Amino acid sequence: MEDNRYEDNKYIKMAAEKFAKERSKDNLFGMFDVLLKRMMDDGEVRTPMVDVNNVFGSFKLEDLDRGDTFTIDQEMRLRIDTVSNGNGNEWIPLYTNEDEMNAKPTTNVTINLPICKVLKAGLEDGVEGIVINPFGLALTMPKDVLKIVVDRYEELQNSNKEE
After folding, report:
1. Considering 30, 39, 143, 151, which has the largest number of Cβ atoms within 10 A of its Cβ?
2. How many domains does the structure of the chain reveal?
C-alpha cells in the first residue's frame, strides 16, 4: 500500500478552502469528514516544535545540513509550537504540506505527528484551537468546533475496538 501520510493532506487543504469560500453547513461537514478520514487513515503532518530546555542552543546548527545525523547526550523536551493572531491568542498550526509550513518558518525542529495528536493539542489549555495553514488560508477551528471532530474520531476508534 502506498504511504499517503502526507500526500492525502491535500484533501484537508481543498476542504478548508471550499469552506472558507462558502461557509455552509455542507462544506463544514465536508471538512469534518476529510479530517476524520485522514485521522482514521493514520495521516500525519509535519509539525514545528519548540526545544523547551534549549538543547539545540549548545549546537552550532549552521554547521549542520538537512538530514545530518547527530547525537544528543541530554534529555530533550519538545512541545508543539503555536502561532499568534493579532489579538495575542495562541493557535496550534496544522500545515497541510511542506510549502505551507515553510511559508514562514517558525522553529528549527519539525517532527511528524499523527493528525489526531495535533487536533487534540488544539483542545488543551492555553490555545484557542487549531489554524489550518496559518500563513496562507489561515482557517481557524476553535475548540468547540474542534471538539466535535475529536469526539467523533474517538467514537469511531472505540467502535472499531469493539468489533
Report:
1. 39
2. 1
